[in-house]
Q: What sequence folds into this?
């Protein structure tokens, strides 16, 4: 049986998390290659639909990475993002998925080590949860049609 490698989408704010990811790369810190980084101007611009769309398109997990609380370049964008992430977690729990597939993480631009550590820890958490339920449903449907 082949080992499950989750697909992770990281929605990273331009000023802090994306810069921390860049710093991790500059320091040659290793983090899983299955983490796909999408730079956003501010995590406050990330809406629930963006997170749900990533899951619908096959991401096994999504995390929103923004500035430390109190340090958002757009005042409170990270606080708005935190509330939206909690909302999506509730929706996922309500439909029987694990809300742990989505998370909010904060860091400053100088925290390359934190970015790498977070990417590794989140990937491991999703690996334990298993594949996105949408993938499983599609695989089962494909198997039934192929028979």
A:
């Amino acid at each position: 049986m082949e080992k499950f490698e989750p697909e992770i989408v990281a929605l990273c704010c331009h000023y802090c998390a994306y810069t921390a990811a860049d710093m991790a790369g500059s320091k040659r810190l290793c983090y899983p290659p299955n983490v796909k980084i999408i730079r956003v101007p501010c995590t406050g611009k990330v809406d629930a639909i963006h997170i749900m769309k990533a899951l619908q398109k096959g991401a096994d997990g999504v995390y929103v990475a923004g500035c430390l609380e109190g340090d958002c370049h757009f005042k409170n964008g990270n606080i708005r993002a935190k509330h939206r992430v909690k909302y999506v977690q509730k929706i996922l729990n309500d439909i029987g998925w694990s809300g742990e597939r989505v998370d909010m993480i904060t860091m400053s631009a100088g925290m390359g080590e934190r970015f790498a550590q977070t990417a590794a820890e989140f990937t491991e958490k999703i690996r334990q949860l298993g594949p996105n339920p949408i993938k499983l449903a599609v695989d089962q449907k494909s198997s039934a049609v192929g028979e």
Remarks:
- The chain has one domain: 8-146.
- DSSP finds five helices and four strands in the chain.
- Strands lie at 8-13, 35-40, 61-66, 102-106.
- The chain has a mean pLDDT of 90.
